[in-house]
TrEMBL record:
Residues 2-318 form the Glutamyl/glutaminyl-tRNA synthetase class Ib catalytic domain. The lineage of its organism: Bacteria, Pseudomonadati, Aquificota, Aquificia, Aquificales. This is Glutamate--tRNA ligase. Pfam families: Anticodon_2 (PF19269), tRNA-synt_1c (PF00749). Monomer. It comes from Hydrogenothermus marinus. PROSITE patterns: AA_TRNA_LIGASE_I. Residues 333-474 form the Aminoacyl-tRNA synthetase class I anticodon-binding domain. InterPro entries: aa-tRNA-synth_I_cd-bd, aa-tRNA-synth_I_codon-bd_sub2, aa-tRNA-synth_I_CS, aa_tRNA-synth_I_cd-bd_sf, Glu-tRNA-ligase_bac/mito, Glu-tRNA-synth_I_codon-bd_sub1, Glu/Gln-tRNA-synth, Glu/Gln-tRNA-synth_Ib_cat-dom.
């Protein structure tokens, strides 16, 4: 069975690049009836925080990603937090010691920095010289008696070329001379990423490792550890990096890049799923609007592009608008919108929220835009825009509003049809039409010269609010 994993570090809100990795693992697993494992890489004790772990789990679930094993759901291959697997790592370190694949390195940070500078000055790639590789036992003993601390380095075979078949990049070959002997356990006894990730993936029976191409340089090191421990090597797939619109690597300078930020900005999960899936992959159909279920059905890892993917914020916003306007069920959309209504101080019952969403959904691209677009449905005592005032300061415009008020003041309800009937009557009586007819009424009811359909507005807010706003306008401009 295909088994993949997503292994984030809980050191902050999850970045779009990591979300895309999680998403492709999820899609690949579900397309192939496989299993997805969530593993928390929390060995960075200084930066890892429980609240970030909870946040990333919440954000991934919001996006629609579910996993079969993990710290919150359990499974047969736990624990699923690296901080709880120390004894396991120690066991495999002993195995590498016994087989002679590792050795103690006593070089200080200063000595290593000197080596690095010298290599760069000579035009060589910086790599460890192997100074401590063949120390005699008495030399090691002397250094330890002097109180020298040490790390454990993996003994890399000289000149070997590590080759593997990447599911996206094809054949990859890397000469070990490019990196040399590398550290697998720090001087404080804490294991390094390249060591623990191999053990975790092997023991959790991960068959395919799908991750960003920034991990490509780690792969040959990990393959060496797989071989040294006698583990079966998984298949690798390295996803293209994500660039901003300026073609530089996506980062905070391109604006908000965490999934949480897009949630807070009123993006809906299906649009985010759709948009992130298109970063490096495209369906065979022409349309870029493709639902999560359709993506899972059509996805093939072989169709993922090798070239970098460009994150287009405007395109994602457009896509979000499509889901809001055309795809999401009104009831469901309203439920998602309620926290945004409430955050803007707009209080109402569900049915009223639903009517407002029906009225404004065609004019918004994110739920955050509810703040401005929904204002006419909730705010009665608004300011009049400067460019709007002229329509009621004009005698003809004032007369339109006055006549409209006279025709509704004794009514106990008003519908769209009523609005249309009354405006036709005013048109005939006052010999006005177009802007001269509708703009004064709009300004009286909203304070603006553009926005929501006025016939819809009067029906939703109801006759009492309509009367109040007209009375207010007549008093203000009278």
């Amino acid at each position: 069975m295909i088994r993949v994993r997503f292994a984030p570090s809980p050191t902050g809100y999850i970045h779009l690049g990591n979300v895309r990795t999680a998403l492709f693992n999820y899609i690949f697993a579900r397309h192939n009836n496989g299993k997805l494992v969530l593993r928390i890489e929390d060995t960075d004790k200084e930066r890892s925080k429980k609240e970030y772990e909870e946040a990333l789990i919440d954000d991934l679930k919001w996006l629609g990603i579910t996993w079969d094993e993990g710290p919150d759901v359990g499974g047969d291959y736990g624990p699923y937090r690296q901080s709880e697997r120390t004894e396991i790592y120690n066991k495999y370190l002993q195995k590498l010691k016994q087989s002679g694949h590792v050795y103690k390195c006593y070089c200080t940070p200063e000595e290593l920095e000197e080596e690095r500078k010298k290599a760069l000055a000579e035009g060589r790639p910086p790599r460890y010289s192997g100074k401590c590789r063949n120390l005699r036992e008495e030399e090691r003993k002397k250094l330890e008696e002097e109180g020298k601390s040490y790390v454990w380095r993996f003994r890399v075979p000289d000149g070997e070329v590590i080759a593997f078949e990447d599911l996206i990049k094809g054949t990859v070959e890397i000469n070990v001379n490019e990196f040399g002997d590398f550290v697998i356990v720090r001087s404080d006894g804490s294991p390094v990423y390249n060591f623990v990730v191999v053990i975790d993936d092997a023991l959790m029976k991960i068959t395919h490792i799908i991750r960003g191409e920034d991990h490509l340089s780690n792969t040959p090191k990990q393959i060496l550890i797989y071989r040294a421990l006698g583990f079966e090597e998984p298949k690798f797939a390295h996803l293209p990096i994500i660039l901003g619109e300026d073609k530089s690597k996506l980062s905070k300078r391109h604006g908000a890049v965490s999934l949480r930020a897009f949630r807070d900005d009123g993006y809906v999960s299906e649009a985010m799923f759709n948009g992130l899936a298109l970063l490096g992959w495209h369906p065979k159909r022409d349309s870029e609007v493709i639902t999560p279920d359709e993506i899972i059905k059509e996805f093939d890892i072989k169709d993922v592009h090798n070239a970098p993917a460009v994150f287009d914020r405007a395109k994602l916003k457009w896509l979000n608008g499509v889901y809001i306007r055309e795809i999401l069920d009104l009831e469901d959309l309203t439920k998602r919108a309620i926290p945004f209504f409430e955050n803007f101080g707009y209080k109402a019952d569900f049915e009223y929220y639903k009517k407002v969403m029906e009225a404004i959904r065609d004019s918004i691209e994110t739920l955050m835009e509810i703040g401005e677009r929904a204002k006419p449905f909730f705010i009665d005592d608004f300011e009049y825009d400067e460019d709007a005032k002229k329509f009621l300061e004009d005698e003809s415009g004032y007369k339109v509003v006055q006549t409209f008020y006279e025709k509704i003041k004794d009514k106990d309800k008003i519908t769209k049809e009523d609005f249309k009937k009354i405006t036709k009557e005013i048109q005939k009586e006052l010999k006005v039409k177009g802007k001269g007819l509708f703009m004064p009424i709009r300004v009286a009811l909203t304070g603006k010269t553009s926005g929501v359909d006025v016939a819809t507005l009067v029906e939703v807010i109801g006759i009492e609010k309509v009367k109040h706003r007209l009375e207010r306008a007549l008093e203000y401009f009278g």
